[in-house]
């Protein structure tokens, strides 16, 4: 079984780069992409992903909540105390620096994978 991921990032070039990273790992399936937080919530309800990779600042002031059981992995260029506090408030399991995604994204997603969904 593969880890199902929804990618929520408003910048198309960043979405493209993350999509490329995810496509390199056979245990991860990108099931949807969202350009807004509302789209991410709708996709999570429809597609039941294991993990949502969310641009942290898309959640600023968001009133919607993600479905129970979906793990949230936030990404941001600003990884200061304010960003960490926001990630915590919205229930993120982790906050990753966008500059380090090439090294950190795949391990972070696999760490959040449900038991039995990883091959390695």
Brief overview:
By secondary structure, the chain is α/β, with parallel strands linked by helices.
Could you explain how this protein is built, in words?
The protein is of the alpha/beta class and 120 residues long. The protein is built from 4 helices and 5 strands; from the N terminus they run βαβαββαβα. It has helices at residues 12-23, 37-47, 81-89, 101-112, and strands at residues 3-8, 28-34, 51-55, 71-76, 94-97. A 5-stranded parallel beta sheet has the order 2-1-3-4-5, with helices on both faces. β4 (71-76), α3 and β5 form a beta-alpha-beta unit.
- Reading the helices and strands in chain order gives EHEHEEHEH
The DSSP helix count reads: 4
**Spatial order of the strands forming the largest sheet:** 2-1-3-4-5
Number of strands: 5
**Beta content:** 15-25%
Question: Largest sheet, if any?
Answer: 5 strands, parallel
Shape: globular
Rg, please? 13 Å
Question: Would you identify the regions where 5 or more consecutive residues have pLDDT less than 50?
Answer: 116-120
- Overall structural class, as computed from helix and strand content, comes to alpha/beta
Gap between N and C termini, in Å? Answer: 11 Å
Q: On the 0-100 scale, what is the average pLDDT?
A: 88
Q: Work out the helicity level.
A: 25-40%
